[in-house]
Amino acid sequence: MSLPHCPKCNSEYTYQDSDLLICPECSYEWKDGEQVTADDSVTIKDAVGNILADGDSVTVIKDLKIKGSSAVVKVGTKVKSIRLLVDSNDGHDIDCKIDGIGPMKLKSEFVKKA
């Protein structure tokens, strides 16, 4: 039995769970035979499950070491006016500018909506 490729990312590694087909690469779920429209967008959620959008403010929930530097983004740091990165390959899905540090990318699993 051959399962269809993912309609979002065209991955061949889909699997079936009950009546849903699931893509392990982009986490998209759909029912077999379901029509998928092009305007379905990827939703990015914070650490507690709130949906994030461009322009939101978030708070860092864990100390984050900055690669290549001795600086640290401390817990509770508020980041304003985030921009979401949908096509990021490195797992970082938030683009932002942090006061005192500068521009950087964050992973949504380490922030919560403010």
Automatic annotation (TrEMBL):
<dbReference type="InterPro" id="IPR013988">
    <property type="entry name" value="YjdM_C"/>
</dbReference>
<feature type="domain" description="Protein YjdM N-terminal">
    <location>
        <begin position="2"/>
        <end position="30"/>
    </location>
</feature>
<feature type="domain" description="Protein YjdM C-terminal">
    <location>
        <begin position="44"/>
        <end position="114"/>
    </location>
</feature>
<dbReference type="Pfam" id="PF03831">
    <property type="entry name" value="YjdM"/>
</dbReference>
<protein>
    <recommendedName>
        <fullName>Alkylphosphonate utilization protein</fullName>
    </recommendedName>
</protein>
<dbReference type="InterPro" id="IPR013987">
    <property type="entry name" value="YjdM_N"/>
</dbReference>
<dbReference type="Pfam" id="PF08274">
    <property type="entry name" value="Zn_Ribbon_YjdM"/>
</dbReference>
<comment type="similarity">
    <text>Belongs to the YjdM family.</text>
</comment>
<dbReference type="InterPro" id="IPR004624">
    <property type="entry name" value="YjdM"/>
</dbReference>
